[in-house]
Amino acid sequence: STPDIPWARLILPAQTGSRLDDLIRRVRRRVGVQLRWGMGRGSRGRSVVGLLYGESGTGKTLAAEALATRLQLPMLSVDLSLVVSKYIGETEKNLSELFAAAEGYAALLFFDEADALFGRRTNVQDAHDRYANIEVNYLLQRLESFEGCALLATNLMQGVDDAFLRRFDQVVHFPRPGVAERIAIWRAHLPAAQLADTVSIEQLAERFELTGGEIRNAALSAAFAAADSGTVVTDGLLDAAVAEEFSKLGRPFPRRQGAFS
User: How far apart are CA 103 and CA 178, in angstroms?
Assistant: First the structure.
């Protein structure tokens, strides 16, 4: 089904938003520019391929869903780490079926956890290395002949070699949100009517360097705790929820000045 994520839900720096707008423009105008204007690239199909990179929780998946919503396309989301098979030759078969399905449904094809393939393009040392490179080359070729829009998401850029980068129409960085973005994200996730008067969204954003995904998790956790105890969302509940997020990451929790242990 087509995702229903309004574009306004994306709280991103201007440069990131601009590059996403460019991807939308390319998808909408690709037939006219590549075919009618004769600006296609050799044997390449009418594909638009984007790479979304940034830490976990910075909005890559949400952005892909928002793109599909704006383009009114169904989205086929694939965890590449699950597609890459330990059996020689199986990955190519799996990828072939996925591309065929995406073309059949005219879907936006979203490859999450794309590090799984980037990291496999290695110096050939044994038969498994050779087949791994064949599988990566197959993905590159199939992206070029794909009739549609494909997005690949990765947490790490150092695993991506030049052969990949040359094939992307747009490379979009999703940085960790700054204070201004964090304020907007907290506001989007906390129910204003259920907030204690003492809660300051601005102070939350300044104190805690969290990603959008971590803010969403903390806001939900605090809201459930408040609902369970029959209260509004308080500073204490928010601190406890944020401390849980810091604990997941193995990071020390920055207590507010004068707070009790």
Answer: 38
